[in-house]
Amino acid sequence: MSDLVIYDTTLRDGTQAANFNLSTDDKIRITLKLDELGVDYIEGGWPGANPVTTEYFAEIRKHNLKHSKVTAFGSTRNFKNRPEDDANLKALIAAKTAGITIFGKTWDVHVRDALQIGLDDNLTIVEDSLRYLRPHVEHLFYDAEHFFDGFKGDRDYALATIDRAVDAGADCLVLCDTNGGTLPMEVAEIIKGLQKHLKDSGKTVDIGIHAHNDSESAVANSLIAVALGASHVQGTMNGVGERCGNANLTTIMPALALKMDLEFVAAARMTSLTETSRYVTELANMAHNPYQPYVGEAAFAHKGGIHVSAVKKNPKTYEHIEPERVGNSRRILISDQSGRSNVLHKAKQFGIDLESSDPVVTSILNQLKDLEQQGYQYEGAEASFKILMRKALGTCKDYFDLHGFRVISQKTESNVAPQDEATIRIEVGGQMVHTAALGEGPVNALDKALRKALTRFYPSLAEMELKDFKVRVLASEHGTGAMVRVLIISSDQQSEWGTVGVSHDIIEASWQALVDSITYKLMKDEV
């Protein structure tokens, strides 16, 4: 088998996902990040399809990539045009990329119903489009669209399209499961059938795989294809893509490198995988999926006390690889399922000296279970849990005392946004402070008033910012009288942390989380 090639199509196929949008600058930054990771080919988009893609191909030429090669994507020519007159083919050449990937119809259903041309006419445009492009580009890839459906529908015709692509000089035949409906056992049999056909006809060409995830089989289909000899794997970072997404490269690459022991450039850089994965979601302004294999926050998170106890003795008991190999880390979660092992592990992580026999451990567990019955959760609010532990030990300092606050939300006209104001009275070291602030919403006003009152005593609070604010309604059958849980993510120049509050009153729940957030900031500044 030829050297294994990793081909990323996040910038093209990935951007067809709902709510996944990238600017030109975003696409450039992601290209540079994928280059650092060692991805072999990066598909930049369809030249001329939109202004962002056109600008991208012009801008990326100004950057000197260390390893990756950029490819342009397009289709076979329009049947009405000669290859040399076809705007799509000319745009592919004008993009001046190291590689070009074009797709053609493999499924007779698409030829008749989508293109509405004869089957022989489709064979002609596949062959002469590739022949026309061949002298103009270093790497020429052919995406056999709907290959697996085409093979199942009319095997002979699907193979005829493949023969034309090979004869025209394609470097690699990329077998596409475009509808994402093919199951792994079918993929295996169809690839074997293609390989036998190529061998019998004396044709030699690299085979690739491009799988979609509509049956949740894209990763499995890709790995099976490689196991059967495919040397080119296409996918996207985090599996983004149209409908249910594409094959997820952040799952495929570590499987190939760490489980199948295959060599490719990115295989030696898997410790950067988690960082790269999260970088892409950050630029796309999307929440990172915590449950993703390998790179998700929950991928190596342990919650049950029995699991935690075993993992502390030997991580292999509940982890299929060491998280550090993909740049991730182990997390021990605190919840009502937690045992003494979880609490002791967290205490050690927080720098708190606790022994298993210490009665405080039992006290903390009892408090934890009682609070979680009320709706508190500490899996994303470890700063609040650290404060809970410190309070149980009697080592949590009171940095200020509340003497009262009031939040007013006043709306004067139906088409004018409300005006929100918070006033607050607190005491710090015997000094009473009474202040007020306006905000974008009642919680923002309260946050500003509290910070305004405290910053004169604790100047470091000026560098703290609220990064995220989430409200979850608990027991929604109670309607507007339901309990709510507020999760606040805060950060400073060194780190970020989460705090939680629960109440029937959203302002009170927010206040609890705000107070914990400020307390944690001041607590860690003293260390």
Overall pLDDT level:
90
Low-pLDDT regions: none
CATH-level-4 superfamily name of the largest domain: Aldolase class I
Please report which band the strand proportion falls in: under 5%, 5-15%, 15-25%, 25-35%, 35-45% or over 45%: 15-25%
Number of helices: 17
Radius of gyration based on Cα positions: 29 Å
Count structural domains: 3
SS-derived structural category: alpha/beta
Strand order of the largest sheet: 1-2-3-4-5-6-7-8
Identify the CATH architecture of the largest domain. Alpha-Beta Barrel
The top-level CATH class of the largest domain is: Alpha Beta
Rough outline? elongated
- By DSSP, the count of extended strands is 16
**Helix content range of the residues, please?**
25-40%
CATH topology of the largest domain: the name is TIM Barrel
Question: How many angstroms does the end-to-end distance come to?
Answer: 56 Å
Summarize the model shown.
This protein has 527 residues and is an alpha/beta fold. 39% of the residues lie in helices and 20% in strands.
Structure in words:
This protein is α/β, with parallel strands linked by helices. It folds into 3 domains: 5-283, Alpha-Beta Barrel (TIM Barrel); 301-374, no CATH class; 401-525, Alpha-isopropylmalate synthase LeuA, regulatory domain (Double Stranded RNA Binding Domain), CATH 3.30.160.270. The protein has 17 helices and 16 strands. It has helices spanning 24-37, 51-60, 87-94, 108-115, 119-133, 147-153, 155-167, 184-200, 218-227, 249-259, 273-283, 305-313, 340-349, 359-374, 382-393, 442-454, 506-525, and strands at 5-8, 41-45, 69-75, 99-105, 139-145, 172-177, 206-211, 232-235, 301-302, 331-332, 401-410, 419-428, 431-439, 465-474, 483-491, 496-503. The strands form 4 sheets. The protein has an 8-stranded parallel barrel, surrounded by 8 helices. Strands 11-12-13 form a 3-stranded antiparallel sheet, with helices on one face. β14 and β15 (483-491) form a beta hairpin. α1 packs antiparallel against α11 (273-283) and α12 (305-313) crosses α13. The chain is elongated, with a radius of gyration of 29 Å. 41% of the residues are buried.
